[in-house]
Amino acid sequence: MDTGQGTGNRILVVGAGATGGFFGGRLAAAGRDVTFLVRPHRAATLGERGLRITGLGERTLIEPRLIGAGEITQPYDVVLLSVKATGLAQAIEDVAPAVGRGTSIVPFLNGMAHLDALNARFGAESVLGGVVKVATTVDADGDVVRLAPMAELTIGEQHGQPSQRLREVCGLLSAPGFETAVTADIITAMWHKWVFIVTVGALTCLARGSVGEIVGVPGGARLGPGILAEAAAVSAAAGHPLPAGELDWITEMVTRRGSDFTSSTYRDVVAGQSTEVEHVFGDLVGRARALSVDTPLLDLATLQLRVHQHRTATAL
Ligand SMILES: NC(=O)C1=CN([C@@H]2O[C@H](COP(=O)(O)OP(=O)(O)OC[C@H]3O[C@@H](n4cnc5c(N)ncnc54)[C@H](OP(=O)(O)O)[C@@H]3O)[C@@H](O)[C@H]2O)C=CC1
Ligand SMILES: CC(C)(CO)C(=O)C(=O)O
């Protein structure tokens, strides 16, 4: 595998939504051999409008190469798995024909449990760990919209050892418009991203507002650090303590006065959409129980999101 285009460099992006559309679009724009595995209604939108990345002054248009489940005839070299946790089981079945002996799967999902599902289905040697730091969404027209400038992809071997294929995958996944990095401890990186996501998700969902709205009322500034302490305690008990600098950074994010920062979970709740409650919140509080860590605030947030999930499911 080298980093040019052609045989040995075929990338399949599963899902062309907020993250897959962004990173896959960037890679396609850089001339990489990118195909998007999409379902019929997304294929129709992309076929009509193309893949557009907007926001922060950007107007990128790509003519994406699309494929449907059932049309995959040979393995790809790298599979970027960018579905939400609620679509994971189906996506695993749909993408299976694309996974051969030399395929590396890079999951974009928040949380941890997807690694177990992917390892069980494809073997741990096929699955890299992945952390994406980006803030993107899909608007009513189907365009990928950037909400904040950060754009980073970090990958690593689950076993933590350096490898030639990790370097090659990193090269293949490097393109202008985002940073790509490798780490020797992707499991810890995934845990720490998880702590951040549940903290901002629980804060904004429990208090129903942006960070600035929450810290602007009496008592509001204590909630974020309280939630962070619980999530960080679970991560530490699982063997992944957060360094002081990372705790300080998250604390600053959840206590910044005037901040309009929210979370994708809160935006989904407000829009009446389903969330990744079990994968992102339920799994963490389940692990907290198993590790004998008390998480009353996270339990409450999880309960609230479960009620929302039940309501959206029964409203269908
Ligand atoms: N958005 C963000 O800023 C960030 C998201 N993440 C995480 O990344 C993961 C993906 O999130 P995000 O990209 O936002 O989600 P989106 O819902 O925007 O995109 C997921 C896409 O996957 C598609 N999909 C689902 N199942 C299949 C399937 N079987 N075959 C083909 N396509 C499928 C969906 O298509 P369809 O339209 O057909 O349903 C949808 O377009 C989540 O775990 C999220 O938590 C992490 C960091 C930042
Ligand atoms: C906070 C953010 C935008 C960062 O990745 C995110 O992924 C989320 O809110 O779920």
Automatic annotation (TrEMBL):
The EC number(s) this enzyme carries: 1.1.1.169
Entries under Gene3D superfamilies matching the protein: N-(1-d-carboxylethyl)-l-norvaline Dehydrogenase, domain 2, NAD(P)-binding Rossmann-like Domain
Catalytic reactions on record: (R)-pantoate + NADP(+) = 2-dehydropantoate + NADPH + H(+)
Record-stated family: Belongs to the ketopantoate reductase family.
Top-level division of the source organism's lineage: Bacteria
Coiled-coil positions: none
The UniProt record lists the keyword Oxidoreductase: yes
Keyword NADP annotated: yes
UniProt keyword terms in alphabetical order: NADP, Oxidoreductase, Pantothenate biosynthesis
Name the record gives this protein: 2-dehydropantoate 2-reductase
Sequence ranges assigned to domain Ketopantoate reductase C-terminal in this UniProt record: 185-306
Protein species of origin: Nonomuraea antimicrobica
UniProt function note: Catalyzes the NADPH-dependent reduction of ketopantoate into pantoic acid.
Pathway listed: Cofactor biosynthesis; (R)-pantothenate biosynthesis; (R)-pantoate from 3-methyl-2-oxobutanoate: step 2/2
Every Ketopantoate reductase N-terminal domain range: 11-157
